[in-house]
Specification:
- The protein is mostly helical.
- It has a single domain, classed as Arc Repressor Mutant, subunit A (Orthogonal Bundle).
- The chain is built from 6 helices and 5 strands, in the order E-E-H-H-E-H-H-E-E-H-H.
- The strands form 2 sheets. It has a 3-stranded antiparallel beta sheet with strand order 3-5-4. It has a two-stranded antiparallel ribbon with strand order 1-2.
- Helix 2 crosses helix 4 (73-85) and helix 3 (62-69) crosses helix 4 (73-85).
- This is DNA-binding transcriptional regulator, MarR family.
């Protein structure tokens, strides 16, 4: 947060600047998760996010994955190619757009998701074990409000 010294102009202290703190926390959590997913399943974070989104949606266009995940097109495309090369996702024709394809999990992708999802929930539970349900609900609500504020600005 910005601090005023002796009633003067606000001074930026990076360690107290909330966007910076949020970025640091996000990087630490993502790094921790990335390490676990890489060791256990050979998945990068973008690949895991893509698998999870496709698992939830059934069939989805890459552009919709970009919008939902806030990952850029190149990141999503690389993850989709890597997963297709491993036989975890398949591209199927998009009836509504001949220039586009839909992604869907293959049987191997569904099997992988069935293994990864419980580990993801377990990791989340360990990371937030010291927080009360009320704290987590409040934190989630604040994150969603921040997202809306940025999208509406």
């Amino acid at each position: 947060m910005l601090r005023s010294q002796d009633g003067g102009a606000a001074v930026l202290r990076l360690d107290d600047f909330l966007p910076y703190r949020l970025s640091i926390a996000s990087n630490l959590v993502s790094g921790h998760i990335a390490s676990a997913y890489e060791q256990l399943f050979g998945l990068s974070i973008p690949e895991w996010r893509l698998v999870a989104i496709v698992a939830e949606e059934g069939r989805i266009a890459q552009s919709a994955i970009c919008e939902r995940s806030r990952m850029d097109k190149v990141t999503v495309s690389r993850a989709a190619i890597a997963l297709a090369d491993r036989g975890l996702v398949a591209r199927v024709p998009h009836d509504g757009d001949r220039r586009s394809h839909l992604l869907m999990l293959t049987a191997a992708g569904e099997e992988l998701y069935a293994q990864v999802a419980p580990k993801a929930l377990e990791l989340e539970a360990r990371l937030f074990a010291e927080f009360s349900e009320e704290e987590l609900a409040g934190f989630t609500a604040m994150l969603r409000r921040m997202e809306r504020a940025v999208l509406e600005s």
